[in-house]
Design brief:
By secondary structure, this protein is an all-alpha fold. The chain has one domain (2-160). It has helices at residues 2-23, 29-43, 51-78, 83-96, 100-120, 123-160.
């Protein structure tokens, strides 16, 4: 009984850490949420949290992996960005993940601007590309937060129903 209680604390801790990681880039938020849900399902022998719930939460996890990339690409595409600008935004996203929220927002913008300016030599165009890429980053973060809340919501619903 004591081991089960500790495992539940661990599962809920993973989910809580995942919610923090959804906002803070140093933790893999949706992965931690999925791990917590999976652990909770295993503790309960998949009675309340069944395989369908695990499958759906897993599908949301996969969707969260693509949320940032898709929204940044859509922002860059909307700005008619050059391939070098898209590459700059991707490199900026990766580097920004290590510098907190400001780096996560600013570095994709700077990377896209530098990449597009290197291609087209237009400050105005590079600014537009950077801005729309940054808006894509914000949209991706919002999508990841919504997906994480949905993952937790399905977990809670499975427990209560």
């Amino acid at each position: 009984m004591a081991i089960a209680a500790l495992l539940w604390v661990l599962a809920l801790g993973l989910i809580a850490a995942g919610m923090v990681g959804t906002i803070r880039p140093f933790l893999p938020g949706p992965i931690l949420i999925f791990a917590g849900v999976l652990l909770a399902a295993w503790i309960d022998d998949f009675h309340k949290i069944g395989r369908w719930t695990i499958g759906f939460v897993g599908a949301l996890l996969l969707l969260s992996f693509f949320a940032d990339t898709i929204t940044q690409a859509l922002g860059a595409k909307r700005a008619n960005a050059s391939p070098l600008a898209v590459t700059g935004a991707a490199v900026g996203s990766f580097a920004g993940a290590f510098l907190g929220p400001v780096g996560l927002f600013a570095l994709p913008l700077v990377g896209a601007m530098v990449g597009d300016f290197a291609t087209n030599r237009s400050v105005l165009r590079a600014g537009k590309v950077g801005l729309l890429t940054a808006l894509g980053t914000v949209a991706g973060t919002a999508a990841r937060v919504a997906i994480s809340f949905a993952m937790v919501g399905f977990f809670v619903a499975a427990l209560l129903l």
